[in-house]
Amino acid sequence: MKTINTVVAAMALSTLSFGVFAAQPVTASQAQSMNKIGVVSADGASTLDALEAKLAEKAAAAGASGYSITSATNNNKLSGTAVIYK
């Protein structure tokens, strides 16, 4: 039982810490007060939610705190780009 409690606690803490580092979508007005640090792209998504998740993951991996999706196209699978900010 103690092992199960430890595992559950570790999972809860890792989920909380991941949320702290995740890049968040930003509005145009929010982006004006942030520094643009680059652009990320993703492809192969089957839904818009999946595309946004891929772009958010790449933004976070690049050290961004925010992102703004600038394009999305669909040729059987979705692809898109996002400007990333810090």
TrEMBL record:
Q: Which SUPFAM superfamilies would you find in this protein's record?
A: YdgH-like
What InterPro entries is this protein classified in?
BhsA/McbA_stress_biofilm_assoc, Dodecin-like, YdgH-like_sf, YdgH/BhsA/McbA-like_dom
Q: Which compartments does it reside in?
A: Periplasm
GO CC annotations, alphabetized = periplasmic space
YdgH/BhsA/McbA-like domain segment(s): 34-86
Q: Which residues form the signal peptide?
A: 1-22
The UniProt keyword set, sorted, is: Periplasm, Signal
Q: What protein is this chain from? A: Protein
Species annotation: Escherichia marmotae
* Source taxonomy: Bacteria, Pseudomonadati, Pseudomonadota, Gammaproteobacteria, Enterobacterales
